[in-house]
């Protein structure tokens, strides 16, 4: 595509709005496009690509550019990531700036810059990971995520959906771990496809799909998705229950639960009860104490495992926000644990990469007694899924091609 001065100006303006990191970049960009209604599809695509492209390499580009500002960052991205030639850019930037960027070194960078992670994140990862693994993780997190869908087992069959999509010319393949997953090579607008509109498929990362398997809810059981949000996991669990029994979908965010409603309608499930709660200590929660067979806690977390989708998130989190989240996670997990019958199953999951949001939260509950860890690797093997990351599941984009993801399965003692 041909770069023009107005287009460069638009990308610069949009980036400027994103770089205060007060709101999620995708929300800022949507608002920006609403204000620039006349922009054509190709120009929008360029602006979005430039903004997300800079965000993915923000630490590196900030080192490369002598006086980093949104415009020079976009120019540095065009040269370093898009491989644009100096000649194509000479009408937009001084020759010294172009030369400086072109000759900037790419080797010998400090680990946090090469991995595109904040220093404090690298410090928190270091006790559990080698520098080489942190670098591989950081590099994988810089790549855009593939588009994964989950076939709704209540309505459709994966092989049939796969064959249909292939027949329609989509480049798709079955996901390696989830029995319901299909991965697209491109990013088509799948939310307009008839299979999406009739609830046969939902967009969901493969890692998230595995949670329903780990929870293992059966027909007729009493189950709760404690942090249901817009119901990504709820719908997978409800399908496994074949729309029988009862599946409570709790959340404190009214808007997210509202977003669950149309998805629920499409899914054809009639066993889900969305329930807005004020907090994890709400009386509606306490009323269910000791009554449930399975509870999923897909806890609010730093989201650092999803940086492929939200590269700005790492700059909107801090050690303080993580500390606050860990207090919340521990409190929610305890409240959720009280709902289980003896022998009932509790799954704790996050899309964080940090041990303090993951293993530490689970180990603290285990140390109090009352629960036993059920090895996730053995459970997955029972489903013929060869995914062995040890007794707790830790998925990494560098190793598994999924978002960064953590899950632990616990059983309430005393059955
Ligand atoms: C990681 S998201 C869940 C995503 C969701 N499970 C899905 O698959 O779409 C965490 C959710 O926890 C909710 N949350 C935060 N505090 C909570 C609390 N005290 N009790 C229940 N849910 C809470 C948030 O509103 C958010 O929707």
TrEMBL record:
Domain SAM-dependent MTase RsmB/NOP-type: 137-413
SUPFAM superfamilies with a match to the protein in the record: S-adenosyl-L-methionine-dependent methyltransferases
Top class in the EC scheme: transferase
Transmembrane segments: none
UniProt binding sites for S-adenosyl-L-methionine: 251, 298
PROSITE patterns, sorted: SAM_MT_RSMB_NOP (PS51686)
Top-rank taxon, per record: Bacteria
EC number: 2.1.1.-
GO terms (BP aspect): methylation
MF terms in GO: methyltransferase activity
Keyword S-adenosyl-L-methionine found: yes
Active site residues according to the UniProt entry: 351 (nucleophile)
CDD domains attached to this UniProt entry: AdoMet_MTases
Sorted UniProt keywords: Methyltransferase, RNA-binding, S-adenosyl-L-methionine, Transferase
Pfam families: Methyltr_RsmB-F (PF01189), RsmF-B_ferredox (PF22458)
Family: Belongs to the class I-like SAM-binding methyltransferase superfamily. RsmB/NOP family.
Protein name: RsmB/NOP family class I SAM-dependent RNA methyltransferase
Gene source species: Thiobacillus sedimenti
